[in-house]
Structures are given as structure tokens and as C-alpha cells.
Amino acid sequence: MKFRPLHDRVLIKPLEKDAKSTGGIIIPDTAKEKPMEGKVKAVGAGTLGEDGKLRPLDVKKGDRVLFGKWSGTEVKIEGEDLVIMKESDIIGIIE
């Protein structure tokens, strides 16, 4: 991929949930909730602190993360649906 987020931004591939409920009912696309879990595809260099030093981000490429339901900006890069958001919009890393 030829895209690198700037500063404290993170590029995330949302992970889709199953299209069936636990009872076996197929859920149509219009009724699905937005995913809140994703995999980090790319990260920016970090932010400048008050001392002028670059502070790297806590997340790295390949991390599985949880983020707010309405966080970030949805984009399509190379035919892939992705989300760009600031690191502060990420709730946590799934280990």
C-alpha cells in the first residue's frame, strides 16, 4: 500500500462481524452496526511534544484495536474500505 498517515493518525481496516445472528438469522447490510474493532494497517510518525521531541505512537502496524463507533473518517484506498483516525480515538489494543 502506498499510503502513510501523518503525525498521530492511524489507518485501520475494520473487521466485519458475522452476517448471521447466534440464532442463525441472516442480518442484511442495512441493519448491521458499524464495526468497532479493526486491524492497524499503517501509522504516522507520532506527535511533537512540548520539548520538541517526536513521541512515537503506542499502536503499531498489525495491532487489533477497539475504537469508538463513530470515530474516524471512512476512505477507500486501492478498493479497500478503511478508516483514518487519530490515535486518541482508539480505545485500546486487543492482546
Helices, strands, pairings?
Layout: E1 9-14, E2 37-43, E3 47-48, E4 54-55, E5 64-67, E6 73-77, E7 80-86, E8 90-94
Antiparallel strand pairs: 1-2, 1-7, 2-5, 3-4, 5-8, 6-7
Helix content: under 10%
Mean residue pLDDT: 83
Tell me the distance between the termini. 25 Å
Strand content: 35-45%
Shape descriptor reads globular
Low-confidence stretches: none
Structural class: mainly beta
CATH topology: 10 Kd Chaperonin, Protein Cpn10, Chain O
* Secondary-structure arrangement, i.e. CATH architecture: Roll
The biggest sheet amounts to: 6 strands, antiparallel
Total helical elements: 0
The helix/strand order is EEEEEEEE
Under the CATH scheme, which class? Mainly Beta
Please provide the count of β strands: 8
Total separate domains: 1
Order of strands, main sheet, comes to 6-7-1-2-5-8
Quickly list its features.
0% helix, 8 strands, 95 residues, 10 Kd Chaperonin, Protein Cpn10, Chain O, two-stranded antiparallel sheet, mainly beta
Structure description:
The protein has 95 residues and is an all-beta fold. The protein has a single domain, classed as 10 Kd Chaperonin, Protein Cpn10, Chain O (Roll), CATH 2.30.33.40. The protein is 0% helix and 40% strand. It contains no helices and 8 strands. The protein has a 6-stranded antiparallel β-sheet with strand order 6-7-1-2-5-8, with no helix packed on it. Strands 3-4 form a two-stranded antiparallel sheet. A hairpin with a 2-residue loop joins strand 6 and strand 7. The radius of gyration is 15 Å and the shape is globular. The two termini are 25 Å apart. The model has no long low-confidence stretch (mean pLDDT 83).
